[in-house]
Amino acid sequence: MALYVQKYGGTSVGSVERIQAVAEKVKGFRQQGHDVVVVVSAMSGETNRLIALAQDMQTQPDPREMDALVSTGEQVTIALLCMALKKIGVDARSYTGAQVRVLTDKYHTKARIQDIETERVRTDLDQGRVVVVAGFQGVDTDGNITTLGRGGSDTTGVALAAALKADECQIYTDVDGVYTTDPRVVEGARRLEKITFEEMLEMASLGSKVLQIRAVEFAGKYKVPLRVLSSFKDGPGTLITIEDDEAVEKPVISGIAFNRDEAKLTVMGVPDIPGVASRILGPISRANIEVDMIVQNIAADHTTDFTFTVHRNDYDKAQGVLQQVVKELGARESVGNNKIAKVSIVGVGMRSHAGVASKMFDALAAENINIQMISTSEIKVSVVIAEKYLELAVRALHSAFDLDASDTVSE
Amino acid sequence: MALYVQKYGGTSVGSVERIQAVAEKVKGFRQQGHDVVVVVSAMSGETNRLIALAQDMQTQPDPREMDALVSTGEQVTIALLCMALKKIGVDARSYTGAQVRVLTDKYHTKARIQDIETERVRTDLDQGRVVVVAGFQGVDTDGNITTLGRGGSDTTGVALAAALKADECQIYTDVDGVYTTDPRVVEGARRLEKITFEEMLEMASLGSKVLQIRAVEFAGKYKVPLRVLSSFKDGPGTLITIEDDEAVEKPVISGIAFNRDEAKLTVMGVPDIPGVASRILGPISRANIEVDMIVQNIAADHTTDFTFTVHRNDYDKAQGVLQQVVKELGARESVGNNKIAKVSIVGVGMRSHAGVASKMFDALAAENINIQMISTSEIKVSVVIAEKYLELAVRALHSAFDLDASDTVSE
């Protein structure tokens, strides 16, 4: 008899029929004797509809009013799901973020959870009810409605699971787990039974968009076992959990992440003096452009080439900023490329295995793929390559690290 | 420098453009130096959309969840209106019923307001803000969202005006005031400058659907001056207020109300013994049928004919109930007619003028209209006639009581 917090995203509750299917799934868990707290998002499309209405009113909608507006999306879903549960004989009760209450800071549209009261939820669970909570929203100390930013429903689920000391936080989504890489690119991509929070964070931030990064961080911090499952087909999904020291043999690499959304910019011939990095990246940051990878090399003539990547949408803007920077720094020129892709290998096993990076470079070299940038962390190695080689690179690495579907390396 | 509570209904906020028009109207009042609290309904169509979703889930949707669901309708409007106000430089802040807070009893979907806190609203007004409140909704002592039932936004407006001691509660709607009768029936129907709460109640309950009855009762009880105006064209509208003793000359009749939604049923040859009325109306009431007019006459043979009217939708059901009643009472038979209409003359002037009823009957007789039932109160006389004579009767009465457009009797 466990306590599960289950989160269903917008696609999983996207229609009357899908909400009814969620109700049936929840009923199944109740019939097995488990307690269930359900966290739901707005029905798919609803948040975009509301945002469009807001933008008809105000180009930059007032953040407090924006939160009051979009928070109605989940409120609709919680009420409908409770009706669907009652219809099939499952007692249920809905709560908005303010009703629970999910206390947040005052940063409208991107608030962070500070505390969750669990008294009302506990009382309902003790009385045999399913509790249905609106994800993505909370309330500040002055009673203003806040939202956690898009996708924040995952965070609500994890935070509730932590506050309630739930046995598992289950994130229902439209994929049936976390894969070694995107199955659309590599046919042999394999669902992982288990992955660590750290690996998941690297996978997520590198473009495998199964879970919200903040939710994974939160789950890791509070050691809430997190499971990604499909709303639409049965299966064990992927369990995201703390590192399991007992596992004798660990795969070196858990997965291959990749990202096509980046563009690369280089300032060439920069005088090699202190403070150059901040004089290049300061103006970029002030233009609200986020930087991902950064690489700097010293050339023979005591100048340096400074390269970084940005989101592809910011490419033109960043080029504009750099023209001014080149003048001010007395640099030679700035060049850029928006036909690049980033590929990363991720795995906690890297820590205890030498030679992982060189194995990666070998595999790419064997396919004649030139590496333009390299960046490493304790559990990942990322490279930037020409976008046209992306699929080839991912398949080569997937095979080189023995990730293709087979039982030999699965946990 | 007055404080106005302004209520805008679903049609008045039915689109982005209309919400922007409301914002402009509110800005005009602010520029004249007035304080404004705005109460809004859901955008027209929205509440019906939500109810349809609920009914897809549950034939009889759970009332608590229904309230959580439909209350999102007004929440969307308050946020959008605040954005529209801010866009044109008017500082504004939205409040849901729970945020204000509008405290109600626990009767979901038909709650009644018990108390309104005004502290936050006062603070915002003092800081020069327009306060925008979601109509139709409140919260109970346990923090559950409640609604006042359909059309309850008028009541929210009046209750807020009473709590804030506002100078006037202005109800903006799609008509430009209260008329002597329906202008679609009588071309010469005239907008009234003023009408008393009592007259308005009789007009409203008799089928002139400009204002919610409960809102008028509430306004009368707390002596909140109520004004009905058009959202779409300028004009003074109609002021609903307490009886003005200073007016020397009062029109005898303020207006003609009528109603096509009724059906008439008669139990004939009922033994004239005590308790007959309850033995007839008891079963009707238990079948959830509401009764409007009731008339009983004693016949020469010591039996009685008992006649009453019900909503036309309940006609068949009521006939079924009466078949059983006839058997149990040993009555002769039951007959009915659903091709009837009710016409009423309403006016506080009746109190001090004799012969109003007979003047009404004369006017109908002159048109050869047979009167089937009569019912009177202190400030109204209602008759039931064949439906086919309805328009003729209304026009005849409008003219007989000098209500046709002219300045001679207007206040």
From TrEMBL, chains A, B:
<dbReference type="InterPro" id="IPR018042">
    <property type="entry name" value="Aspartate_kinase_CS"/>
</dbReference>
<keyword id="KW-0457">Lysine biosynthesis</keyword>
<dbReference type="InterPro" id="IPR001048">
    <property type="entry name" value="Asp/Glu/Uridylate_kinase"/>
</dbReference>
<keyword id="KW-0808">Transferase</keyword>
<dbReference type="InterPro" id="IPR041740">
    <property type="entry name" value="AKii-LysC-BS"/>
</dbReference>
<dbReference type="GO" id="GO:0009088">
    <property type="term" value="P:threonine biosynthetic process"/>
</dbReference>
<keyword id="KW-0547">Nucleotide-binding</keyword>
<dbReference type="InterPro" id="IPR045865">
    <property type="entry name" value="ACT-like_dom_sf"/>
</dbReference>
<feature type="binding site">
    <location>
        <position position="47"/>
    </location>
    <ligand>
        <name>substrate</name>
    </ligand>
</feature>
<comment type="pathway">
    <text>Amino-acid biosynthesis; L-threonine biosynthesis; L-threonine from L-aspartate: step 1/5.</text>
</comment>
<feature type="binding site">
    <location>
        <position position="74"/>
    </location>
    <ligand>
        <name>substrate</name>
    </ligand>
</feature>
<dbReference type="GO" id="GO:0009090">
    <property type="term" value="P:homoserine biosynthetic process"/>
</dbReference>
<dbReference type="Pfam" id="PF01842">
    <property type="entry name" value="ACT"/>
</dbReference>
<dbReference type="GO" id="GO:0004072">
    <property type="term" value="F:aspartate kinase activity"/>
</dbReference>
<feature type="binding site">
    <location>
        <position position="179"/>
    </location>
    <ligand>
        <name>ATP</name>
    </ligand>
</feature>
<dbReference type="GO" id="GO:0009089">
    <property type="term" value="P:lysine biosynthetic process via diaminopimelate"/>
</dbReference>
<dbReference type="InterPro" id="IPR054352">
    <property type="entry name" value="ACT_Aspartokinase"/>
</dbReference>
<keyword id="KW-0067">ATP-binding</keyword>
<keyword id="KW-0418">Kinase</keyword>
<comment type="similarity">
    <text>Belongs to the aspartokinase family.</text>
</comment>
<keyword id="KW-0028">Amino-acid biosynthesis</keyword>
<feature type="binding site">
    <location>
        <position position="184"/>
    </location>
    <ligand>
        <name>ATP</name>
    </ligand>
</feature>
<comment type="pathway">
    <text>Amino-acid biosynthesis; L-lysine biosynthesis via DAP pathway; (S)-tetrahydrodipicolinate from L-aspartate: step 1/4.</text>
</comment>
<feature type="binding site">
    <location>
        <begin position="173"/>
        <end position="174"/>
    </location>
    <ligand>
        <name>ATP</name>
    </ligand>
</feature>
<dbReference type="InterPro" id="IPR005260">
    <property type="entry name" value="Asp_kin_monofn"/>
</dbReference>
<dbReference type="InterPro" id="IPR002912">
    <property type="entry name" value="ACT_dom"/>
</dbReference>
<dbReference type="Pfam" id="PF22468">
    <property type="entry name" value="ACT_9"/>
</dbReference>
<dbReference type="GO" id="GO:0005829">
    <property type="term" value="C:cytosol"/>
</dbReference>
<dbReference type="InterPro" id="IPR036393">
    <property type="entry name" value="AceGlu_kinase-like_sf"/>
</dbReference>
<feature type="binding site">
    <location>
        <begin position="209"/>
        <end position="210"/>
    </location>
    <ligand>
        <name>ATP</name>
    </ligand>
</feature>
<dbReference type="InterPro" id="IPR001341">
    <property type="entry name" value="Asp_kinase"/>
</dbReference>
<dbReference type="GO" id="GO:0005524">
    <property type="term" value="F:ATP binding"/>
</dbReference>
<protein>
    <recommendedName>
        <fullName>Aspartokinase</fullName>
        <ecNumber>2.7.2.4</ecNumber>
    </recommendedName>
</protein>
<dbReference type="Pfam" id="PF00696">
    <property type="entry name" value="AA_kinase"/>
</dbReference>
<feature type="domain" description="ACT">
    <location>
        <begin position="265"/>
        <end position="348"/>
    </location>
</feature>
<feature type="binding site">
    <location>
        <begin position="7"/>
        <end position="10"/>
    </location>
    <ligand>
        <name>ATP</name>
    </ligand>
</feature>
